[in-house]
């Protein structure tokens, strides 16, 4: 009996999901527990595994298509078996079932960074184009389709054949190919040569989400970045002393990020306008601080959230940052843990970057960028001393925040970092 593959629900707030990549083609044999399709929701990607041995009978939702949770995206059954109703309507649920997660065989749901080679990427090709390419010895993976959703047409293959033939002729002949325009042999030789050293990969999954959000951020907000330097010499000394005093608590290892997070939370409580969201022409200012901490991953980044951070001590913030960072790098964050932030901190200090321009995480109106600490000669009175200087970059939405209050907010963060004992009171 054919078994449906449903779009799973990866979190309580998930309403729809996107097919990132089918790892099997229609008609391919599959084994129980074998990954057959990669789906994504928000910034989470996960494999869906085959619930039984058999054949992938039907693919109802193609790559990059988005459907509601619970919709059938494919069927697995025995060879020659009918796939059943392929109308792609969501199955009717009882009230009890509606309260549960969609039942699919996904094994242990651990989001993964899925980077597949082109050979595993299913190309959209018309039958005529595929036949012509096979006869002419054309590699379809090197062709960019001009049809709907990048579908490769017969005309695309014919053009590729002409380019291939032209590249084999002497450049001195200076012949032209008449298609929609004129292409000289010299031009086609250059194109063919360049293509040999180029890998083309579609933007999907987490990368696609980041690309969409960052582009929208720059299009929908009036972003301005200001910079300051904080002398963190005393802070680093305090950090060293506290580490020594907390040796009996091995799970606590205070980092400079922990102090910056604490300073930011205190500054947001003092400058509530920065702790706002700008949505649908309205400014939503929050009493509680829900702090986002950007975590870099191999193929992108995620922003787990520390809710009600103003209620946490320095030690508690440190524990939370460490816990969320580990879960993020292991791909175990839930979608709920990455939602609801009112302000974000991002750092490139580990990469030697000083000042930079962080991009807002809409609908937030502020994001703090943290650079690397450098040894800098500074006048202290009439004497020059070697001090530890931390670069800070604040990007804010000028639709909501003006330069003066933004500068005051950043100055408050700087003051806490330069007088770190105030964060412990």
How would you portray this structure in words?
By secondary structure, this protein is α+β, with helices and mostly antiparallel strands. Helices cover 27% and strands 25% of the residues. The chain has 9 helices and 21 strands. It has helices spanning 95-98, 127-136, 154-167, 185-196, 205-220, 233-245, 256-270, 314-329, 403-418, and strands at 3-6, 16-22, 29-30, 35-41, 44-49, 54-59, 66-68, 72-77, 176-178, 182-184, 223-231, 276-279, 282-285, 291-293, 295-297, 300-302, 305-306, 343-347, 366-370, 374-380, 383-397. Strands 11, 14, 17, 18, 19, 20 and 21 form a 7-stranded mixed sheet that branches. The chain has a 4-stranded antiparallel sheet with strand order 1-8-6-3, with no helix packed on it. Strands 5-4-2-7 form a 4-stranded antiparallel sheet, with no helix packed on it. Helix 7 packs across helix 8 (314-329) and helix 7 (256-270) crosses helix 9. The longest helix has 16 residues, at 205-220. It is elongated, with a radius of gyration of 27 Å. The protein starts with a strand and ends in a 7-residue tail after the last helix. Residues 85-121 and 171-189 have low confidence and may be disordered.
């Amino acid at each position: 009996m054919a078994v449906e593959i449903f779009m799973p629900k990866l979190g309580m707030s998930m309403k729809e999901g996107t097919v990132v990549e089918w790892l099997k083609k229609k008609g391919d044999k599959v084994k129980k527990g074998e990954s057959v399709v990669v789906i994504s929701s928000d910034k989470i990607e996960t494999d869906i595994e085959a619930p039984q041995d058999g054949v992938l009978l039907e693919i109802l939702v193609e790559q990059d298509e988005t459907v509601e949770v619970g919709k059938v995206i494919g069927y697995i059954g025995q060879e020659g078996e009918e796939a059943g109703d392929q109308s792609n309507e969501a199955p009717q649920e009882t009230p009890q079932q509606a309260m549960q997660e969609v039942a699919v065989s996904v094994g242990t749901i651990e989001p993964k960074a899925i980077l597949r080679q082109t050979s595993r990427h299913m190309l959209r090709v018309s039958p005529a184009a595929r036949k012509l390419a096979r006869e002419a010895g054309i590699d379809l993976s090197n062709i960019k389709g001009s049809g709907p959703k990048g579908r490769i047409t017969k005309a695309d293959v014919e053009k590729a054949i002409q380019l291939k033939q032209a590249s084999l002729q002497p450049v001195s002949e200076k012949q032209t190919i008449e298609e929609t325009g004129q292409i000289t042999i010299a031009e086609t030789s250059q194109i063919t040569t360049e293509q040999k050293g180029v890998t083309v990969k579609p933007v999907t999954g987490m990368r696609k989400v980041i690309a969409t959000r960052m582009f929208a951020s720059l299009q929908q907000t009036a972003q301005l970045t200001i910079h300051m330097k904080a002398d963190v010499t005393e802070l680093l000394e305090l950090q060293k002393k506290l580490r020594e005093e907390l040796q009996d608590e091995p799970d606590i290892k205070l980092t400079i990020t922990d102090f910056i997070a604490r300073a930011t939370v205190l500054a947001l409580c003092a400058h509530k306008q920065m702790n706002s969201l700008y949505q649908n022409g309205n400014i939503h200012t929050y009493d509680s601080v829900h702090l986002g901490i950007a975590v870099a991953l191999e193929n992108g980044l995620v922003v787990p959230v520390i809710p009600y951070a103003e209620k946490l001590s320095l030690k508690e913030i440190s524990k939370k940052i460490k816990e969320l960072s580990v879960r993020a790098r292991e791909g175990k964050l839930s979608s709920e843990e990455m939602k609801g932030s009112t302000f974000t901190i991002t750092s490139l200090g580990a990469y030697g970057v000083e000042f930079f321009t962080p991009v807002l995480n809409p609908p937030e109106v502020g994001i703090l960028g943290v650079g690397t600490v450098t040894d800098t000669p500074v006048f202290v009175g009439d004497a020059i001393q070697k001090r530890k200087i931390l670069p800070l970059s604040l990007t804010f939405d000028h639709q909501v925040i003006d330069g003066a209050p933004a500068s005051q907010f950043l100055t408050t963060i700087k003051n806490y970092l330069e007088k770190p004992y105030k964060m412990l009171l």
